[in-house]
Request: fold
Amino acid sequence: MVSDTMLMPMLVAAFIVAAMQYLLIFARNSGAVEHFWLGTACLAAAGSALAYCPNFDAAAASDPFVAHDLPKLLAAAWLVTSAWFIVEYSFGNSRRRWIALLATLLIVIACVGDLGFDTAEKKSVSGPVPGPWHLAGLAALAILLSLATEAAFRLWSSARRVRTAAVVGLCLALAVTAVHIVLQGFSELLPPVLFAFLFVVMMTTYGLAGAVVDGEGIARRQQQELANASRLSIVGELTASIAHEINQPLGAILNNADAGELLLASPNPPLEEIRQILVDIRRDGVRASDVIRHVRKLVHKRELEFERLDANALATEVIALLGAEARNRRIPITPSLWPQPAYLHGDRVLIEQMLINLITNAMDSIRSVSAMGEPLSLVPPLALSVSSTIHGDIEFQVIDTGAGIPMERLDHLFDSFHTSKAHGMGLGLSISRSIVEAHGGRIRAENNRGGGATFRATFPPFMEDVRV
Reply:
């Protein structure tokens, strides 16, 4: 037995923790069969390591089964589960599963024969333990080694380096086990086997962590794709309004250009009027350019760009972008800005997208009230306010006087594909929540006492030492 009073208990604890981790993964995903086999192999390894803990002999001396036979069964269980782990972890086919089944049968024969072999007879025999079960054990180890070696080559050729390292570590453990069986049979596992298997567990855990990180990266990219699709949908819905918003300054530019041309054709051109016409042309050109710039920002596919933003300026830009749509719907948007600069740390396009989602939803709600018979002229305007909370956070509020939110939908309002619109997809509010939470903020909705609803999006204030 190993005399170290700390090393083996720590090894037992490590194997138990790993076993619980992989068995829980299998419990949540029954398709992850390799995690089941690795978890049960870890349990068997933990039991084998426990047999090396100090005072185990003294505690088990009164029970021959626990003292002599249980370690053999644990060794056999570790070999069987390792065989199936090799097959599943290396994406083995049905032929390899038949090979693993053959190795399992040979291990069972070797274990049963070794357990049935009389202990006194063993002591009278020097050297390797004879018997057909001994040869069965060696044959099983040879099959497992060949299976693991072939799996390592396949994984290496498919550029799965972490899995290759794990299988190579298992090859080392099997080789040590084979040497031990040649010398003593299925009596017990050597500590080097346990440490080699611990390396296997570490490599598989490292690979699992990498897979989790990759999965989060994929989910993040999918979320960005969804947000980009939502922006494209917004632009599609506002196409008529955007075209009208651009046509107005372009029409003014053409009229001013015609007027300037007529003035220049006169004998004494009035230079002051021509200068004013040029100023008007420049102003309308900047106005049209600003509309196009905002639309390009919305549809542009890009990574997050965090910067210091003025919430008042954001609200003003969004109201300007939605101005034509609001006029077409005859729903004025009333701004209520914070009297001081309110800075936050975020991505300008995403926050504008979130506000556009909330405002267009609010306008739809107000239109639904008009559809129910109330004249739109009697409906109070929609409000977009910027304020600072008592904790210093920056809060946007979109307040409407529409139909409000049914109580049964209030708890699921920000869930994906949850919508009350006949032609809605139920993604706008879900994406808005994702945008707010990506900035470390929170979003909530509540019904107003006098009718309608208020959406509140709260963001942490800008700090000089913030780094995203």
Summary: Residues 118-129 have pLDDT under 50 and may be disordered. DSSP finds 16 helices and seven strands in the chain.
